[in-house]
Amino acid sequence: MPDALKVRKIGNSLGVILPSPTLEELDVEEGDELFAIRTPNGIQLTLYDPGFAEALEDSREFMRTHRNAFRELA
I want to staple 28 with a disulfide (CB 3.0 to 4.6 A). Which of 1, 32, 43, 44 is the partner? Predict the structure, then answer.
């Protein structure tokens, strides 16, 4: 059965406290960043920055397209 998370006031913001088993499953510790991603099934919490992954794929495509120029520069 999924854990119910209660929204609480934390300073001037609102937040949720993740239970220890959830933190262990996500393999996160205090200070780690989590990214909330919208999916067709709702919100997903992940350690991976989707913006970084997209930028990395764009750079790989650029390097593939300009492979010969990179060889000449090397």
Answer: 32
